[in-house]
Write the structure tokens for this entry.
Amino acid sequence: MNSSESSDEGGRPYHHGDLRNALVDAAATLAEEGGPDAVTIRAAARAVGVTPTATYRHFANQADLLHAAKHEAMDRLAGTILDLLASEKPAPHPAEAAVQRLAAAGRGYIRFALAQPGLFRTAFLRPHSGDAHPSTEISAILAEAPPYAFLTTVLDDLRAAGWLAPELRPDAETAAWAAVHGLAVLLVDGPYGDCPDTERDRLINATLGMVVRGLSGGPASDAPLNAE
Amino acid sequence: MNSSESSDEGGRPYHHGDLRNALVDAAATLAEEGGPDAVTIRAAARAVGVTPTATYRHFANQADLLHAAKHEAMDRLAGTILDLLASEKPAPHPAEAAVQRLAAAGRGYIRFALAQPGLFRTAFLRPHSGDAHPSTEISAILAEAPPYAFLTTVLDDLRAAGWLAPELRPDAETAAWAAVHGLAVLLVDGPYGDCPDTERDRLINATLGMVVRGLSGGPASDAPLNAE
DNA sequence: CGTTAACTTTGCAGATGTTAACTTTCCTTA
DNA sequence: TAAGGAAAGTTAACATCTGCAAAGTTAACG
């Protein structure tokens, strides 16, 4: 008689009710602890307390589950950045404020990478060849990587404030993103793996400084950069 | 009577003679095609035409083999950069020449990443916790990542030529490296995965431009970068 | 001729993804 | 309100991969 009880009282109901989300959460937790490789059908099912095959009611296969975990990870990265941006009090001068926000976004990005290396790696897993829609639209990049949106906004502000040189605007997102992402990767996985906190902060500042300086027009705008 | 033949004539000799190197090569090839995950004891042994257990005469375990593959990958990356640097004819002006070499190194770095994504990922595998000697010495970084050496040299030249602002010198390696590495990662694994060649070149130029500009002292050297 | 290094055979123990067929529950419909 | 179909689980099983250890075999070398 108690078999259909969906409230408390012993055995969980036959129907989970929200299994898909539960699996995504479990997958995220697995990624958090063991990186992308830890995201397996069986482990996720085990974590939720469900049979492996039940997973196939909600995901086509393991790649599909991993894909969901990737999106979840990316969302959390975006959330961390947003939180940090929201907690900043803008500087009075517009240009200063924009620069400050750019730096804050970068710091949030790196902070997330350091705090959640497993999720960070998962968020930037190479897209499984097969779900590739060959659209080169910016919207595609944006959908794949929400942080891009903040960058665009901040850089527009920076441009409006007269800091960012007009001719540098087009690919500024990429350049700034590359620097921040690269530093994050080097700190998390790379040779800077175990690096004292104080030195790490210095490196972050140096890199952000280079970005800010490199995006402003300056005496070096006509650098002799020969394409190959 | 022919069983001990080490020359041609049919069956390979019982003793391989250079199994360790052969396995490293095989591991590199595996990494080339399938990334780090493809580097397994059995696959490497299979590729060489040897029993899996034979591997244990030369490597302690799978992690050890993978470690060797990682070093091999890093060496090839360094080789690619060196080759490209060697083929550049230096510009007359010292500063120009230094900037040119910095850009060339960056291009070589990214070129390798795009041409050999599997090896590139393998080269920057996070160091397996356990072989971590907590030395923060620069020499450690250098040993782990030969490209660092070129960077140091080039940046010294840049400094000597008066381009690189003195106060920016200390962490210039990291900042420049971060930008180039980040772009490489974004292009190989990240959202820029399938990106038309022409756009890709533009992004590379934009990023390298930012680096060069960002390392020179300029009007923006006193950017309002508040530490957190 | 014997010691020893290099390699093979055999085999275990543990993962994984995925399919097929069955069962329980819910929800709609007559 | 009872029936019946569809949805969401479960059990069982297959095929395949992995690392690794123990013990035997081959050949090289002093």
